[in-house]
Amino acid sequence: MRPAQYSQWEIEAFRPLLGLLRRALHTQDARLLGRVASASARINQRHLPKPCFERLERLGEELGAVGLQVAHSGSVIGILFDGASPDREEQIEEARARVAEMGFGSLWRFTTRGDELLPQFLEGSVVETAAS
Amino acid sequence: MRPRQVNSSVIEAVELPDIVALEPNLFGVSFFLMKLIPARFILDRALEEGRLAPGSVVIETTSGTFGLALAILCNLRGYRLHLVSDPAVDPALYRRMVDLGATVDIVTEPAAVGGIQQARLDRLAEVRAAHPGHFWPSQYSNVNNPLSYSCCAELLVEAMGQVDCLVGSVGSGGSMCGTSSYLRMLFPDLKVVGVDTHGSVLFGLPDEKKRLLRGLGNSLMPQNLDHTAFDEVHWVTGQEAFLATRQLHRKHALFAGPTSGAAYMVARWWARENPGARVAVLFPDEGYRYQDTVYDDSWLLANGASLDRLPDEPIPCVHPGEVPRCWSRLHWERRTYEQVLGRGFERA
């Protein structure tokens, strides 16, 4: 796989991404974190496009997700939800059902709890990672 | 918290703005000298590309603060700066740039066709021809001008979080088009409000050579102006901008130049109309340069620039052709110049 050839604008654009990331971490604001992830994902769409990106983006908006995250060097894509949202479980259950219909190889759920990252196996048997 | 640090130069110390809360949803982005950002970025890229070395000649045409920013940078970095300017450059600015080592070439005779602007361009061409191997920053067309504002967008979002509206004056298009391009990546619904003045061609008004309000607007169309960035355009007169500049000083002790006053008047109104939105307004320079003009009541009176009170709101317009000579507003709606005016323009 050829490394992404970022434009000058994209290279500069990572500065404000980092600025808002620091803000999101400092204020523990999942919504702002989602903005950073989505913006980064949209930049990546110009280099290693994810085939279902637009559909997942619309699905996320419909379900009240805070954003999308994608692997910039692989085939993983994720929908981010605010863990503090009261509707979290319904949102995630709906997303799981709708994403399963799209034919992904496998489906995982990750939950942050403090600094722990807890993977939870949902469906399928193989996690697709770096494609090349 | 990051540890406090010594700055390696005055550039690093003053390049980034301070963000000041003016009202619950209005944030002033106050620069010492905003043009340091594009000037440094443009020179850095040129250095990387091998187009600059100590002793290099830098040539630019400007009568404003971009020249001062270049003079500061060229002084610290050991470049020889040659500025082609016109009588609009005030004596204090002239002396400061000369003190920093710049050659400031004031063109006084208008060209037979094209006036003083054309005479400046003619002189620029002569100076450039006389210095082979020079570097020309060309702020109106250099793509590194808008690109440079990533540091400004970074600071804005880190300090403010959500930004719903960006208000600022437009001259080269660099600060507003550059900053908003980065902010919209994070906040696609961001409203961008440009502030221009009567007699400037930027958003379709007829050119007037003698504009009272300097430092925003333009007689020529800069390549760096992307009209489709703007949701709204406001036109502000010199009189209104000067009074708003004084109000910014009287109410918030923010000592800024008249382009800041123009932007403040528009942003204050916009923020009150949209109380749920978080509004950032760019203040491009400090007030010292204007102490004998905008900050001097007798100068204001003598120059017909005195005003008792500001309009409560702008006059709404649907076409640049109907803009009256007072604070006015047009829903530009991210259209091209051709879409709004029904005709094209000649680029500078």
Describe the SSE topology.
The complex is a heterodimer of chains A (132) and B (348).
Chain A: H1 8-27, H2 30-44, H3 53-63, E1 67-70, E2 77-80, H4 88-101, E3 107-113, E4 116-123
Helix pairs in contact in A: 1-2, 3-4
Chain B: H1 10-14, E1 18-23, E2 26-30, H2 36-48, E3 57-61, H3 65-77, E4 80-85, H4 91-99, E5 103-106, H5 115-130, H6 144-147, H7 150-160, E6 165-169, H8 174-186, E7 191-196, E8 232-235, H9 238-252, H10 258-273, E9 279-283, H11 297-302, E10 315-317, E11 328-331, H12 337-341
Parallel strand pairs in B: 2-9, 3-4, 4-5, 6-7, 6-9, 7-8, 10-11
Antiparallel strand pairs in B: 1-2, 8-11
Provide an overview of this structure:
- The complex is a heterodimer of chains A (132) and B (348).
- With 132 residues, chain A is α+β, with helices and mostly antiparallel strands.
- Chain A is built from four helices and four strands, in the order H-H-H-E-E-H-E-E.
- Chain A is globular, with a radius of gyration of 15 Å.
- The model of chain A is unreliable at 123-132 (pLDDT under 50).
- Chain A has one domain (8-123): GHMP kinase, C-terminal domain (Alpha-Beta Plaits, 2-Layer Sandwich).
- Chain A starts with 7 loop residues before the first helix and ends in a 9-residue tail after the last strand.
- In chain A, the strands form two sheets. Chain A has a two-stranded antiparallel sheet with strand order 1-2.
- In chain A, strand 1 (67-70) and strand 2 form a beta hairpin.
- With 348 residues, chain B is α/β, with parallel strands linked by helices.
- Chain B folds into two domains: 10-33 and 144-340, 3-Layer(aba) Sandwich (Rossmann fold), CATH 3.40.50.1100; 36-130, 3-Layer(aba) Sandwich (Rossmann fold).
- Chain B is 36% helix and 15% strand.
- Chain B has helices at residues 10-14, 36-48, 65-77, 91-99, 115-130, 144-147, 150-160, 174-186, 238-252, 258-273, 297-302, 337-341; strands at residues 18-23, 26-30, 57-61, 80-85, 103-106, 165-169, 191-196, 232-235, 279-283, 315-317, 328-331.
- In chain B, helix 2 crosses helix 3 (65-77), helix 7 (150-160) crosses helix 8 (174-186) and helix 9 (238-252) packs across helix 10.
- In chain B, 50% of the residues are buried.
- Chain A binds chain B through residues 8-9, 12-13, 15-20, 22-24, 27, 29, 32, 35-36, 39, 42-43, and chain B through 143-144, 147, 150-151, 153-159, 161-162, 181-183, 185-187.
